[in-house]
Design a protein that fits this description.
The structure is a single chain. By secondary structure, the chain is mainly beta. It has a single domain, classed as Jelly Rolls (Sandwich), CATH 2.60.120.10. Helices cover about 5% and strands about 40% of the residues. It has a six-stranded antiparallel sheet, with no helix packed on it. Strands 9-8-11-6-13 form a five-stranded antiparallel sheet, with no helix packed on it. A two-stranded antiparallel ribbon has the order 3-4. It is globular. Bound molecules: dtdp-4-keto-L-rhamnose. The site of dtdp-4-keto-L-rhamnose (TDO) has 10 residues, from strand 5, strand 6 and strand 11. GO terms for molecular function: dTDP-4-dehydrorhamnose 3,5-epimerase activity.
């Protein structure tokens, strides 16, 4: 696998190194030893999938607070998404900054989201399916959200925003959030 650091410290793009043959290809998409060697969480306790019918659908920006803070490993298994991260870690040099990676079934890339970083995505095609692993169990008591359109963050969403959940319409702004401490 190829690990490429993203602009937010501790966030990575993880690409497979496919081996092709007459049947198609084979590639490793997770390896506890390689993730551990890069200092990444290598133990997943939950795996989720979401299907999004329309292009432009936006889910985010979501995170969990300690002691349920979770790292995520995100892949797009149908359609296409722009996967987006916002740094919410107290004292981080990139606090409040965002970065994004386009994920598709064809590029087979994954995004590693570290603890303390909010995550969301917008679908770029209809019927986009997102599959992701979590390092901590879902804990509604520790869930947090950040407004997808906070001007102080300035995420450049590529399509008109569609299908926001009621929760995501009402998430707080960065200035209203308590930064996340480990
Ligand atoms: C995330 C989650 C939700 N749920 C429930 C709560 C609710 O009734 C229903 C849908 O939940 P939500 O509206 O929060 O789903 P969604 O907006 O897709 O939330 C997800 O968004 C992306 C961007 C992430 O990063 C994920 O961690 C997660 O927060 O499923 C679970 O039972 N387990 C879970 O792990």
């Amino acid at each position: 696998m190829i690990f490429a650091p993203l602009s937010l410290q501790g966030a990575w793009r993880v690409d497979p190194e496919p081996r092709g043959d007459a049947r198609g290809l084979f590639a490793r998409i997770f390896c506890a030893e390689e993730f551990g060697a890069h200092g990444l969480v290598a133990r997943w306790v939950q795996m989720n999938v979401s299907l999004n019918r329309e292009a432009g659908t936006l889910r985010g920006m979501h995170f969990q607070r300690p002691p349920a803070a979770d790292a995520k490993l995100v892949r797009c298994t149908a359609g296409a998404i722009l996967d987006v991260l916002v740094d919410l870690r107290a004292g981080s040099a990139s606090f409040g900054a965002w970065c994004a990676v386009e994920l598709t079934p064809d590029n087979r890339s994954a995004v590693y989201v570290p603890q303390g970083v909010a995550h969301g995505f917008q679908t770029l095609a209809p019927d986009s399916e997102v599959t992701y692993c979590h390092s901590a169990a879902y804990s509604p008591a520790h869930e947090g959200g950040l407004r997808y359109d906070d001007p102080a963050v300035g995420i450049d969403w590529p399509l008109p925003v569609a299908n926001l959940s009621p929760r995501d319409q009402n998430n707080p702004l960065l200035a209203e959030l308590e930064p996340i401490t480990a």
